[in-house]
Amino acid sequence: MNVRKPPFSRLSTLTTALGLGLSLLAGSLMAPAAAQAEGQLRIAEQFGVVYLLLNVVRDQHLVEKYGQQQGLDIKVDWTQLSGGSAVNDALLAGSVDIAGAGVGPLLTVWDRTYGRQNVKAVASLGNFPYLLVSNNPQVKTIADFTAKDRIAVPAVGVSVQSRYLQYASAKRWGDQDYARLDAYSINLPHPDAAASIASGGTEVTGHFSNPPFQEQELAKPGVHVVLDTYDLLGPNSPTLLFATEKFRNENPKTYHAFMAALAEAADYIQKDKAGAADTYIRVTHATIDRADLLKIIDNPRFEFTINPKNTYPLAEFMYRVGAIKHKPASWQDYFFVDAKPLQGS
């Protein structure tokens, strides 16, 4: 696990940064984001095995490979951020071209840019169960969290983990109380939150994350599952890649090289899990045990694919509770439809 700072040394900084990020988001909606010239691609990713497709694309220089097939030398820049708010801000400010974040942040930015920048998803990163875990023995269900507990998520009220928690809250207490547990949630990057859960002794008693952090936490005594997103929605695609309409239209060769690269990466992971595990360690410099990582990647509930699955229920929920103003008729409303269309839901 990559833990560079104590869990709370960055909390106030993160909170301030996210607050500034909201201002940046509001400002960026007033002016169109600048598009990069054809042959340049800037990608923002976050933490975890769910970004393995991007790790493979990066390690094997697949975007460059498919660009060269079109006679184009593509320069790819990689940025790692934490939280859907930061990712959305970077995309709308024109700092990145392809953003990786949860379906919740995608729906938020799709709704806010509707008829303007027209941000839409380009692909899924796969289907994975996200787990809310706790080290508090009194917490068996989400109803057991109290004001003494804090649930770490990447971005309160925005990240897909936070949206899943709201979805679960609405099922338990009704739509009018969908945001009940937001008051107990805090912004914290996955590596820092995982360290807090593993060590104990902090106010963070819950963490809603993704692989491999959730599996590493569950290996610690006393840490247990409170909520499994597959129990909420069934197998689904929690994390997506998205872009502005302007970038897609003005950079067709770069865009299609990226899509071809993703498809090859997905095929590679499905066929060579051991090689994919080595790639993750090499690219992310993670200190996780290789055997443990391979076991995580080989989980039969995981599917590495660019085709989205079961994203629409969250979209319908977010519209129903007023989190987004535009109601998509189907998943294809918030995905770009290419010549070779995705097969999804």
Q: Care to describe what's here?
A:
With 345 residues, this protein is α/β, with parallel strands linked by helices. The chain folds into 2 domains: 215 residues, Periplasmic binding protein-like II (D-Maltodextrin-Binding Protein, domain 2, 3-Layer(aba) Sandwich), CATH 3.40.190; 103 residues, D-Maltodextrin-Binding Protein, domain 2. Helices cover 41% and strands 14% of the residues. It has 14 helices and 10 strands. The strands form 2 sheets. The protein has a 5-stranded mixed sheet with strand order 2-1-3-10-4, with helices on both faces. Strands 7-6-8-5-9 form a 5-stranded mixed sheet. Strand 6, helix 6 and strand 7 form a beta-alpha-beta unit. Helix 1 packs parallel to helix 4 and helix 4 packs parallel to helix 5. It is globular, with a radius of gyration of 19 Å. InterPro entries: TAT_signal. It comes from Pseudomonas eucalypticola. This is ABC transporter substrate-binding protein. Keywords: Signal.
Q: Quick check: average pLDDT?
A: 88
Got a strand count? Answer: 10
Side-by-side strand order of the widest sheet: 2-1-3-10-4
CATH architecture of the largest domain: 3-Layer(aba) Sandwich
- CA radius of gyration is 19 Å
CATH class of the largest domain: Alpha Beta
Count of runs of 4 or more consecutive helical residues: 14
Largest sheet: 5 strands, mixed
Q: Determine the N-to-C terminus distance.
A: 33 Å
Classify the fold: give the CATH topology of the largest domain. D-Maltodextrin-Binding Protein, domain 2
**Which parts are unreliable, with pLDDT below 50 for 5 consecutive residues or more?**
1-35
Shape assignment: globular
Strand content: 5-15%
Fraction of residues in H or I helices: 40-55%
Keywords: Signal
Protein name: ABC transporter substrate-binding protein
Organism: Pseudomonas eucalypticola
Pfam families: NMT1_2
